[in-house]
Amino acid sequence: xxxxxxxxxxxxxxxxxxxxxxxxxxxxxxxxxxxxxxxxxxxxxxxxxxxxxxxxxxxxxxxxxxxxxxxxxxxxxxxxxxxxxxxxxxxxxxxxxxxxxxxxxxxxxxxxxxxxxxxxxxxxxxxxxxxxxxxxxxxxxxxxxxxxxxxxxxxxxxxxxxxxxxxxxxxxxxxxxxxxxxxxxxxxxxxxxxxxxxxxxxxxxxxxxxxxxxxxxxxxxxxxxxxxxxxxxxxxxxxxxxxxxxxxxxxxxxxxxxxxxxxxxxxxxxxxxxxxxx
Amino acid sequence: xxxxxxxxxxxxxxxxxxxxxxxxxxxxxxxxxxxxxxxxxxxxxxxxxxxxxxxxxxxxxxxxxxxxxxxxxxxxxxxxxxxxxxxxxxxxxxxxxxxxxxxxxxxxxxxxxxxxxxxxxxxxxxxxxxxxxxxxxxxxxxxxxxxxxxxxxxxxxxxxxxxxxxxxxxxxxxxxxxxxxxxxxxxxxxxxxxxxxxxx
Lengths: 278, 200
Ligand code: FES
Ligand SMILES: [Fe+2]
Hints:
By secondary structure, chain A is an alpha+beta fold.
């Protein structure tokens, strides 16, 4: 596989979930992972140790030589946040389709009906999208959407503001209006482990201000959302994400997806991508 | 034979959409509230979602992912994310020729110029999936030139065979109005067992 694909950090486990050593797949290849005392390890199929990072409650590794550190989310360190390991969901789709779906708000009224969206509030206003060259990340800002139940902690319908960030090809960070603390952002991430190019394990993680909900309430809320997304992701054709224009029809509401695809193409990230229009 | 049965009208009442297929062509079959049948490519042009997971609203089929609505010609009429926009004509779903006749939904992937199959006075009983290719089912009946329709002496039954994959097909079963539907149904179950026991 090419360096453009190997030289990234990938999530491979929730640290709190590692007990006995186990095998999993990364980019179609077998790896094993476990914990010795305090530190987690990862090995490739030949038994060679791979680099590791423990961050955001998850274990990260790379089959190549990452040319930069795993991204950080400084806001998540501020005191008072509750860090939520949501667990994992395996999805039969390209890892890139999973990320793209996470960047999409236009589906809320139809897929997350009466939770993250509801008709007739379907309009998506223009927002700002750019590839921030200095950090090589995709950002969408000033994204606004009416939500009947924006979070477990929301008392009723509100217009939520979102910012989306794609700091790595298979990861996205969402900053969204925090119902109990206007002015602060809740953080919800989607870390995607590419098992193969058409099969992924999705590890959502959250850093929320919510003093009232129990941990399991917050986890169930997010899991419900991801189950609804999975019913979409496993039924998109083709399973791989088309990077070339022509196969699918974007509109203004899809500016984040357009930028994401363009950025993947620019950095040569083709794992899970479909390059030629069928 | 140009026409292939893809379902029975009784299983796709007005307002319903189902997935179906003819070999590698995957389709969304739907019925408008006023009773017209359509067979479309099972893929939304927007982001590739299966339209057979969608919903019928008014005389349109809406995609479940972002709610884009397609009118009966397959053209996109409405994009909920941009309610004031008139979608360009270029956004449309590929459609296939589809008619309902005698309680059977027929699709032609060719011209649709052939006459529809003659069903006699028969009425639809039920559809039965079989783990055997349509070709092997035809071979079982040994009918020369038989592709998709066979008339069987038991209950004067007509079988419309829908080819699905190399190892599966669906039998749409019609029988004379005086035949006991339960008896026909049992006979078809036995036929399925026999067919599935035939070495491929
Ligand atoms: S994929 Fe069908 S409306 Fe978006
Ligand atoms: Fe979603």
